[in-house]
């Protein structure tokens, strides 16, 4: 079995340069394994420039180009398993699509405080909030049309850590027939997660770091009080709770795809920028 790590430092889909910095730092944080080669998706580098909104999507051409390049890199490597290192949530599209084509009977566990089923019509232009909708064949055709192996079905998705929804998100989930449970007070039990996994031979796991409580873990979007996003709120999980969920999943299923997205180390990024301004580092 060949497992690759895909470094996909997309930031334009979230409109925040720290996504790129966080992806590169995360690649160093993950446990080393010489048997898992690292392949890189070349995306536009942070340049401080604002992009245009086209057809309701911020930096539409760059977002689409990134997904296409990711698909090319993955197809060339021909892996059996993929660990995708983001970047923001859009990075799951290419890897999950590839694995959907490789395996039959695949389910998705989406560990996230948010549903990621927004569309360009909903008024929030950043594609990272649209990726699961795209995988389900819902929303902007310019994203979902990039899928090469068919869309996932509504009953092939399980949300873990989901928090309150906007009205348009609730409507999208209802229109698609996706079952969900708002987990404000209690997260899904091990039995609920295992019952879902028993229906499938293989699992894809999407982990958005913002499922963690921003009051306890600060390298997440909602720990930065200057950011408002689409008006959603923070996740509520502790690190211990997240660790338990991940152990439950990996210990009771065949995980062939894992995405880790939206790690935002704001303080480390500011430190990097400070040092970058010193001449001794640039001589």
UniProtKB/TrEMBL annotation:
GO molecular function, one term: manganese ion binding
Signal peptide: none
SUPFAM superfamilies xrefs: Arginase/deacetylase
Family statement: Belongs to the arginase family.
InterPro entries per record: EF_Hand_1_Ca_BS, Ureohydrolase, Ureohydrolase_dom_sf
Stated name of the protein: Arginase family protein
GO cellular component: cytosol
Record organism: Candidatus Bilophila faecipullorum
Keywords: Hydrolase, Manganese, Metal-binding
